[in-house]
Write a structure and sequence with these properties.
mainly alpha
Length: about 180
């Protein structure tokens, strides 16, 4: 489910993607999280008895929070690095002597002049707008990379999850869990 979520995000994201496009994708993520966290919690608490269940639940929750915090930090770092990499690649592709680039900047200049800016300010604002477009595209490419790598990481984890042997013979006594 997480791979479906990640691949879906990879496919739909663009500079013009609105927040409403993520609704069903986030529903799939929620289903995937339910399918992930409930078995993990059950597996981690299945062999514990009495007071150990409360301590195990607290430890599991703490590890989930720490894992989430480290995950967010790792993804943020990855996004920042990829953003700079994509921005450098995009900027190196822009050549001020290229007629297409000149046409784009000239079009932006005329657009801003039509809004009342003097010619020199309109040209500077056109370059700033082009820079903003490059930054926006670099951010989109970075998020696409992040979605793809997260999806692949979840696929790589599937064999390891299948290797975990559950303790099917042990049933948790709920009266013990309450004390």
């Amino acid at each position: 489910m997480f791979f479906v979520y990640s691949f879906w995000g990879y496919k739909i994201i663009s500079p013009d993607t609105g927040a409403d496009a993520f609704f069903w994708m986030l529903i799939v993520r929620g289903i995937g999280m339910g399918m992930l966290f409930i078995p993990i919690t059950t597996l981690s608490l299945s062999t514990l008895k009495g007071q150990q269940i409360g301590q195990g639940a607290a430890f599991t929750g703490m590890m989930r929070q720490l894992g989430g915090s480290f995950g967010v930090a790792a993804i943020t770092t990855y996004l920042a690095r990829k953003n700079m990499s994509h921005r450098n690649d995009l900027v190196s592709s822009l050549n001020i002597n290229d007629p297409d680039v000149q046409q784009r900047v000239l079009g932006l200049q005329h657009s801003f002049m039509g809004k009342g800016l003097p010619s020199n300010e309109a040209l500077g604002t056109g370059y700033k707008t082009l820079d903003y477009m490059v930054s926006k595209q670099a951010a989109v490419l970075s998020y696409m990379d992040a979605f793809l790598i997260l999806g692949v990481m979840f696929l790589v984890c599937i064999p390891f999850v299948l290797m975990v042997k559950g303790n099917k013979g042990t049933k948790m006594n709920m009266s013990e869990a309450m004390h």
